[in-house]
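Ticket #361: bound-state structure for iron/sulfur cluster.
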Amino acid sequence: MTTMPVLLKDLTSSELSVALAPLGVSPHLARQLQVAAVKRDEIPESLPAVSAKLLERVRREVRLPRLSLLNKAVSPCDGFAKYLFRGDDQESYEAVRIPLLNRKDDLKYIVCVSSQAGCAMGCRFCATGRQGLVRDLAAWEIVDQVIRIQADSEHPVRGVVFMGMGEPLLNYESVIRAARILAEPCGMAIAGKAISISTSGIVPGIRRFTTDRLPFRLIVSLASADSARRREVMPVEATYPLGDLMSAIRDYHRVSGRRVTLAWPLISGFNTRTEDAVQLAELTCNLPITLDLIDVNDATGQFRPPDRAELDEFRDALRLHLKMPVIRRYSGGRDIHAACGMLAKQFCSPTHFEGTRFSTR
Ligand code: SF4
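RESOLUTION: The complex was predicted; output attached.
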């Protein structure tokens, strides 16, 4: 049919249907193949009411790619698990399994996936940003992070956040295709609203996300409501300044009707002053937002999270001036370098190793 095999896990079921139609594959059979690939990680050898000859033709034309698991570490403190994967080349990247800690008898997981190997954005509080960009991940490489982690877990994965390595909106096509595959009923069947795409503020990507009217949640990392200060820690501000960013976010809200989540990495002495709360309130005036406060995790020690008193003061200021929902997000897995901003392929303590030991480059 074609010289290149059709990659399963890399296409939505309707794309798969189009790709395999020249072989005589019906949309129904394409969906069955998708279920087998994504839910069971296999290409079926036989299927009721499908001729062996047709299935054999399909098997010759498709490939079921798989990530290799290079390493895994589980935090003895909070149960966060970090996985190091490799695709078809030598590049490796990480994903984190996050237990929903408040549900002991009904444990579920969220998986934080990488969308790129490395990252070009250079956020100063982030270990991935210090590595630079190596390459975009293909959709199947994103989908398979979730499939492999689900296969390794006793409890179901119910949510996915694109907050691992990379800037998702700079790998838009693969990220959105992966999110669609994860959401579709014959894929991982994860609810669209339980899939969050996070961005450092790529304005054209937010505009495209708005136009595409996607069912996924949008999270925008802000760090400061003052352009000059934001630029100190997030170089993206030089390309897409706060004014343009907020206008894209307001348009997104107007078109989708959804509340936007703004992520605020808490940095002691930098963005936790009353003035920061006042500026944020002015910047987001009349826009329904949820503010996610996340402790900064900087292994270099240059940026530190606030202590209890500083945090309480900032929360009081937010209550007074912002008057919007504020959520303190737990950023777990610090002891295994799995917390937000720490993904740099480090597996440091031998006591936490599980699975194959691998020497990272
Ligand atoms: S915080 Fe995200 S966008 Fe910024 S450098 Fe790290 S991985 Fe890239």
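RESOLUTION NOTES: The domain at 68-354 is CATH 3.20.20.70 (TIM Barrel).
TICKET STATUS: resolved
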